[in-house]
Amino acid sequence: MTLGQAQGGAQPRLLIIGPQGSGKGTQGVRIAQAYGIPAVSTGDVFRANVKDGTELGLKVKAIIDAGDLVPDALTGEIVRDRLSQDDAAQGFLLDGYPRNLGQVGDLDAFLDERGEPLTAVIELSVPRDESIRRIALRATEQGRADDNEESIAKRLSIYESETAPILDVYRERGIVDAVDGVGTLDEVFERIVAALTARGITPAA
Ligand code: AMP
């Protein structure tokens, strides 16, 4: 029995999912802090590698800048390595992975082998115009190379065609909590904590 279970709570093995600009990165970091688990963002891993000019970074830069998806095999390997590290033994929060049905299968295979399935999926919803407004704001603040008009349009369309359908898979498992992503950071965060608490997933003391 793990420490989390011994305390009576379900382990936080979480996925946060939402369109670009939904605030999932920001909320993901807050959730990770509150629950004492690592936030694993594939987008952040790729961006850090591009910035440092690593072999991986050189491989994925053009793909990311164009707003396309990095191949599943490469992305899956990165996630498996990260989730195998000690700090993810008591739980984790995935942000940006899985992003299509193939990746759901890859993640299932990995987690099933460990007998540690996801315990909750937070679906952060914001209307499309709000999402575009937030990305435009981020583009001026952070200057991300993939926050240009063409790439944004492609990423939103990939979200709708490839990523949104994975929610159906998780809905069938009864683990999705739909959270309204419009509001202040605190308001949205409180909604997420309330949804997780209702599942018996409680913040670290
Ligand atoms: P994000 O910060 O999550 O929006 O990710 C930025 C970019 O990294 C995406 O547009 C993709 O090019 C790449 N990326 C991040 N996560 C994945 C993933 N799970 N599968 C494939 N590509 C990804």
Automatic annotation (TrEMBL):
<keyword id="KW-0418">Kinase</keyword>
<feature type="binding site">
    <location>
        <position position="144"/>
    </location>
    <ligand>
        <name>AMP</name>
    </ligand>
</feature>
<dbReference type="Pfam" id="PF00406">
    <property type="entry name" value="ADK"/>
</dbReference>
<dbReference type="InterPro" id="IPR027417">
    <property type="entry name" value="P-loop_NTPase"/>
</dbReference>
<feature type="binding site">
    <location>
        <begin position="96"/>
        <end position="99"/>
    </location>
    <ligand>
        <name>AMP</name>
    </ligand>
</feature>
<feature type="binding site">
    <location>
        <begin position="21"/>
        <end position="26"/>
    </location>
    <ligand>
        <name>ATP</name>
    </ligand>
</feature>
<keyword id="KW-0545">Nucleotide biosynthesis</keyword>
<comment type="pathway">
    <text>Purine metabolism; AMP biosynthesis via salvage pathway; AMP from ADP: step 1/1.</text>
</comment>
<feature type="binding site">
    <location>
        <position position="183"/>
    </location>
    <ligand>
        <name>ATP</name>
    </ligand>
</feature>
<feature type="binding site">
    <location>
        <position position="103"/>
    </location>
    <ligand>
        <name>AMP</name>
    </ligand>
</feature>
<keyword id="KW-0963">Cytoplasm</keyword>
<feature type="binding site">
    <location>
        <begin position="68"/>
        <end position="70"/>
    </location>
    <ligand>
        <name>AMP</name>
    </ligand>
</feature>
<feature type="binding site">
    <location>
        <position position="47"/>
    </location>
    <ligand>
        <name>AMP</name>
    </ligand>
</feature>
<comment type="similarity">
    <text>Belongs to the adenylate kinase family.</text>
</comment>
<keyword id="KW-0808">Transferase</keyword>
<keyword id="KW-0547">Nucleotide-binding</keyword>
<feature type="binding site">
    <location>
        <position position="138"/>
    </location>
    <ligand>
        <name>ATP</name>
    </ligand>
</feature>
<feature type="region of interest" description="NMP">
    <location>
        <begin position="41"/>
        <end position="70"/>
    </location>
</feature>
<comment type="subunit">
    <text>Monomer.</text>
</comment>
<feature type="binding site">
    <location>
        <position position="42"/>
    </location>
    <ligand>
        <name>AMP</name>
    </ligand>
</feature>
<dbReference type="InterPro" id="IPR033690">
    <property type="entry name" value="Adenylat_kinase_CS"/>
</dbReference>
<dbReference type="GO" id="GO:0005524">
    <property type="term" value="F:ATP binding"/>
</dbReference>
<keyword id="KW-0067">ATP-binding</keyword>
<dbReference type="GO" id="GO:0044209">
    <property type="term" value="P:AMP salvage"/>
</dbReference>
<dbReference type="InterPro" id="IPR000850">
    <property type="entry name" value="Adenylat/UMP-CMP_kin"/>
</dbReference>
<dbReference type="GO" id="GO:0004017">
    <property type="term" value="F:AMP kinase activity"/>
</dbReference>
<comment type="function">
    <text>Catalyzes the reversible transfer of the terminal phosphate group between ATP and AMP. Plays an important role in cellular energy homeostasis and in adenine nucleotide metabolism.</text>
</comment>
<feature type="binding site">
    <location>
        <position position="155"/>
    </location>
    <ligand>
        <name>AMP</name>
    </ligand>
</feature>
<protein>
    <recommendedName>
        <fullName>Adenylate kinase</fullName>
        <ecNumber>2.7.4.3</ecNumber>
    </recommendedName>
</protein>
<dbReference type="GO" id="GO:0005737">
    <property type="term" value="C:cytoplasm"/>
</dbReference>
